[in-house]
Amino acid sequence: MLNAEHTQGAHVGAPRSRVDGRLKVTGAARYAAEFPADSLLHGVIVSSAVTRGKIKRIHTGDAKAQPGVVEVFTHENRPSTAWFDYKYRDETAPPGSPFRPLYDDEIQFSGQAIALVVAETFEAARAAAMLVRVEYTPADHATNLDLQLDEAYVPPKKRNGIKPPPKPRGDAEAAFAAAPVKLQNEYRVAIEHHNPMEPHATTVVWKGGGKLTIHDKTQGSQNSQSYVTNVFGLSADDVEVISPFVGGAFGSGLRPQHQLFLAVMAALQLERSVRVELTRDQTFTLGYRPCTIQQVSLAANRDGKLQSVMHNATAGTSRFEDYQEVVVNWSGLLYDSPNASFDYRLAKLDTYTPSDMRAPGATLGVFALEAAMDELSCELGMDPIELRLRNYADRDENDDKAFTSKELRACYRQGAERFGWSRRSSKPRSMREGRELIGMGMASGVWEAMMQKTAARATLTADGKLEIACATADIGTGTYTILAQIAADALGLPLERVSVKLGDSSLPKSPVEGGSWTAASAGSAVQAACDSVKQALLTAARGLEGSPLANVDLDRIVLRDGRAEVAAHSSAGLAIEDIMRGAGKQKLEAEESAAPSKTAMLTHVGYTHSAVFAEVRVDEELGVVRVTRIVNAVAAGKIINPKTARSQILGGVVMGIGMALEEETLVDHHLGRFMNHNLAEYHVPVNADIHDIDVLFVEEHDEMVSPIGVKGLGEIGIVGTAAAIANAIHHATGKRMRDLPITIDKIIGA
Amino acid sequence: MSPSAADASASVGAIPIRITINGESHALQVEPWTTLLDLLRLHLDLTGTKKGCDHGQCGACTVLVDGKRINSCLTLAVMKDGSEVTTIEGLAQNGDLHPVQAAFVEYDAFQCGYCTPGQICSAVGLINEGHAQSREEIRELMSGNICRCGAYVNIVDAVEHAMAHRRQSPRNPEARS
Ligand code: FES
Ligand code: FES
């Protein structure tokens, strides 16, 4: 096995264990709250007990009098920060006025941070925080989306990077009226919280002279850095954000969160190092997947050909920002329909602003569409895969562009075969074992294959080692590993000779890690930087006195096993160390950036696709659902590391199972408050909930979607999973579940 | 001892305890309200043990106390006077990964790595208990450790592999009489 690793091209496409694995299994990987600092202070946040209103008085005397307490910050004594909204707007912010912690006496949502108690020890700060007493003047609040539907509006300002709904095509209403087979349904998905295992935290290390090193839980070290410099009026030279490990985020680390603001504020004011960690229940005051109500109408001819697709959605947002995501557009591009219309609205609620959560928008919209397609297949008496094949879209009608590649047919075929779809009886309630009803369902998944301009640096040193650097983050996605693989192959090195530095704002520029774009973007940048180093190395090699490569064309020289050799015979060549020494180089370094091809994107658009198959067993008396098998067939371009790639899909599927059956942030609308703000009552899948999950990647060659042919995998695994499960539950029980999560009460009650 | 541990020892009401952590004996003064988890993370800079909820709901803080897996966030440090604690930092021997650690790397049984120390300590505890015989039982008995990255299938593979390895191995790395 080791020998194979030492030849060129050995790493990309091969399963490799994570290069950061050892650090993670030994506890040596440090996360945001784990960086040490001399005489570190601890901050504990006091959260508002009312949902809306004003702080009449806030009594901090008792807290301040506690031993070890250094300061209690409130809106009354906070240091001044930037005035304008735009200073608080990070690179992922929706339009609006971002939340400003401790800004004034106004309460905008339940759990809002209203004070920070800073003490010499965590325990002292925690105890003192309980002594802060607050008098409120409460005001009326609205948190129930159902009651705000009349007030829903089309967002006047589009969120950067979010495509608005496509223009209507044909006459969807008339075609719906005229079609022989049709359905019109409402679908709902509850609020969900990301709940990464690492609660949000920031450690600010005070370096003296106003210089800060910040360890923040973030998907974008440079995004956090510019937020801090903008809000506190600091120079970028004085603020470095270093976050090499992130304990999961799923979107919750995209926006700088309020613990970053509070920790920096306290550190600057007290001129000491400060750490602020959120408790698990306080993490429920961050963004979330918004409650979304959707209507999908489908109409088809008797042969299954779609005639009309109408998809409308209304989602909650905060009073102060118009959070938007792509919910309905998927219905315009997954299937071909001559008539289609779309509508996406927001309604204001007294909550914090929602945020991107794994496959934002797509999980919701594709759930509704794919559940509706399943119903249509039943209406037509047609196999669900057959219905999808009859309406297969060969072109993206939304943007009127060709797909860079689309192997969804192969996903259906290979997924169905692996799953044993042919064993499915077409009738609902027709498969049973003991008291369990067995159901099989499927759904398609889709996510945009995006790429963002990203830079990376490659540094080859005289000892033949290569260091890769990029500011992007690895939140568990496997970025460290795939970048090492790409770099090792580019310079023909064993993996052990490549090191990768990420998650540091001082490194080459990268956007936030998200949207599944990191592998394509950072990967292409690393490829480009390594190619430049390779050019310089080979040029140096040919220029050496008596070089065996002197008269060899560059394209006939290969780098393998740490040597530059003539492609045909490996005896003529030079070790990298010898080239470096001969050329008198301590290092060869290149920084390059990669960006999507503007010309290709004029005519083409890239999407990742999947076909998800689910088998469920439903206890008829108890209503308990077990998802006993999932097969997820994914077409995502080139797979750099089948091992970590599979894990990405497994993780998406598991979260999709959670979405289908368990996850729901319950709101007490009377109090305007999330009720189940802990991991005992907000149910996420545990080990016993997860049975067999089989992931397969179909071959998909795509030279257009990104320079390295990669599409990205972080989101696609969750898309379609909930629909496949809901469809399987229908197949098992004959009951249609259009409201997620599908909890026992809904199954029993239906 | 770290400076913060010295601070803790100076405060009123601190209680002396002796506790062995990863083979090293510590004489400490701890506040009665300091959890074992906070003692490890905040006072001894053993940050490998994670805090995911502080309420016994996630398993991220799992450590081995006298060979048994417990949630260190639900345990006051003073309660463990005289105990032997093994954290994730204490599992590898002379730079060699513990078989469960090695299996986690091999089977890609984690992504972000934040639940991982707790999963591994829990798996070591599970194997010590000797109850789990099947994948089904591993799933059930590992369900106190949440992995939000969803690595469960690989966690079960890794634990199953480590269990089989232990049965085959003549020199049982876990054996403590
Ligand atoms: S931190 Fe102890 S169980 Fe979650
Ligand atoms: S690896 Fe991220 S929570 Fe388990």
TrEMBL record, chain A:
A molecular-function term among this protein's GO annotations: oxidoreductase activity
Domain Aldehyde oxidase/xanthine dehydrogenase a/b hammerhead: 26-140
Family matches, as InterPro entries: Ald_Oxase/Xan_DH_a/b (IPR000674), Ald_Oxase/Xan_DH_a/b_sf (IPR036856), Ald_Oxase/xanthine_DH-like (IPR016208), AldOxase/xan_DH_MoCoBD1 (IPR008274), AldOxase/xan_DH_MoCoBD2 (IPR046867), AldOxase/xan_DH_Mopterin-bd_sf (IPR037165)
SMART domains attached to this UniProt entry: Ald_Xan_dh_C
Top-level taxon of the source organism: Bacteria
Pfam family, one: MoCoBD_2
Record protein name field: Hydroxylase large subunit
Native organism: Alsobacter metallidurans
Highest classification ranks of the organism: Bacteria, Pseudomonadati, Pseudomonadota, Alphaproteobacteria, Hyphomicrobiales
TrEMBL record, chain B:
Gene3D superfamilies reported for this sequence: 3.10.20.30, [2Fe-2S]-binding domain
Record keywords, A-Z: 2Fe-2S, Iron, Iron-sulfur, Metal-binding, Oxidoreductase
Domain 2Fe-2S ferredoxin-type: 15-91
Nucleus recorded as keyword: no
Pfam families per UniProt: Fer2, Fer2_2
Coiled coil: none
One annotated GO molecular function: metal ion binding
Cross-referenced PANTHER family: OXIDOREDUCTASE WITH IRON-SULFUR SUBUNIT (PTHR45331:SF2), OXIDOREDUCTASE, IRON-SULPHUR BINDING SUBUNIT-RELATED-RELATED (PTHR45331)
Protein name: Ferredoxin
Source organism of the structure: Alsobacter metallidurans
